[in-house]
Amino acid sequence: MRLGKQSVSNANLPSRGKRGRWWLLISFSVAVLACLVIVQGSALPLVSSEREDLLTHRVQLGDLVVSVMEQGTVESSNNTEIKCQVRGYSTVIEVVDGGTIVEPGDVLVRLDTKRLEDEIGKATTDAHTAKADLERTKADVANADIAIDAYLEGSYLTQLNSLKKQLALAQANYANAKTEMGHTQAIFRRGYVNQFEVESKRFALEQADLGLKVRQTAIDVLNNYTKEMRLETLRGNLRAGKAKLQADIAGLAMDEGRRDRVIEELKYCVIRAKRGGLVIRPSAEAWKGQPDIAVGATVRKDQVLLLMPDLTQMQVKVGIHEALVDRVKKGQTAIVTLPDFSVDGEVISVASVAKPAGWWTGNMVKYDTVIGIPASQDLKPGMSAEIEVVLSEYKNVLLVPVSAVVETGRFSLCWVKTITGEIEQRVLGLGDSDDVYIVVNSGLTEGDEVLLNPLDRLEEAQREAFQAFEPDVGSSDDSKSEETAEGTQGGQGDF
Fold first, then answer.
1. CB burial class (10 A; 0-12, 13-18, 19+) of residue 104?
2. How far apart are CA 316 and CA 332, in angstroms?
3. Which DSSP string corresponds to 136-204?
4. What is the pLDDT of residues 364-382, one digit of tens each?
5. Among 123, 125, 117, 126, which Cα is nearest to 265's?
6. Which CATH number fits domain 74-112+276-389: 2.40.30.170, 3.30.2310.20, 3.90.1150.210, 3.40.50.300?
7. 153-181 confidence digits (pLDDT tens)
């Protein structure tokens, strides 16, 4: 028996271990409802083993293809990005329609220039002001340089010469006082003058000596201290002036650079095609009403405005549900179904990090998966595509419908109609599955007749399924709950 390809719709698949058998939840839900009805006194109609209207399926060998199907959009794997190169935020005033074939030099996007024009005016004014400040600083530096020479060759020499004249006069006074002192002492010894005259001359000599020392000290202070202090002040003024000069030069360069950059950015407000080809707009997010790039939209620097795809390299990007992503591997075969035809593709890559989940994705966690497809003139970016990734293929295996299996949490069970017409419970060892069939590794043989939908027909199946939910059924009487659990287990029997 050859079974057709059965796809796994992962949009509603929960994580069920390595098998991921989503139908278990459905079976359990039906079991709970059935048991609730029984508890309330309205027991479900049970079908005895002797009834001949039971729906059964004869187990056979066949082939099984397990796959996952997702929706995606055709895109180029090599897109030339047209980005905004204007700083800050700009407003789009013109944009080419998506799907347009353009020639080199055609206008693709035009941005509003008012903000940049205002910046150019301000930057130009700042540059002129900075240039005027620079000229004043240059004059200050020149004056500070001249002030040093003016001091050394002007006021310093004038002050030094004045002190030297005073020193010479003091030296002359000292020499005269010393001579008079000697003369007075000589005539004092001869008795021509008294002691008062001698003391008077000695006092005059001391005063002249003191005046000489003061004048000499003044010259030393001028040369060793006053001169150096004044020169350091003047040199400091010069250094400060030169530092400000460098700052003014840098400031002028900055202002002129800012002006020149804005003037250059003004050119970027008109974006032209560098080559011919198809132009498309970046896809809008699912939760947005329109694309990001439209007339009146606000765009930022480095934002992708348009794409020019390479039509020789095409791909489809889809999201694979977290329950199945571990089974999707690079190199697996994928069937890409397009509106008018189908092509064979291949899994190129699987993202290692999931896309953020939110209300716009139905809170489903998915991983971006890229499917490579061969180039074709019939392929266009933006075409909708259905992707079927083949996960596993099984040849000549024993298959049973998933509707015939009941999961209890401990066992996988089915019920077989024997030759005598009786219903027999079997414990199964199961393998992989799709939406319809599941591989049976043990518990059944070819030709066995399994009961379909046993939860709807057998009290035993309802009881087995309900046991998986017993830990969640609360009771105000703990002892009563324990007794009930023990009684249920006792009724299962040994398999």
1. exposed
2. 14
3. HHHHHHHHHHHHHHHIIIIIHHHHHHHHHHHHHHHHHHHHHHHHHHHHHHHHHHTTSS-HHHHHHHHHH
4. 888 999 999 887 777 888 8
5. 117
6. 2.40.30.170
7. 888 889 899 999 999 999 999 999 999 98
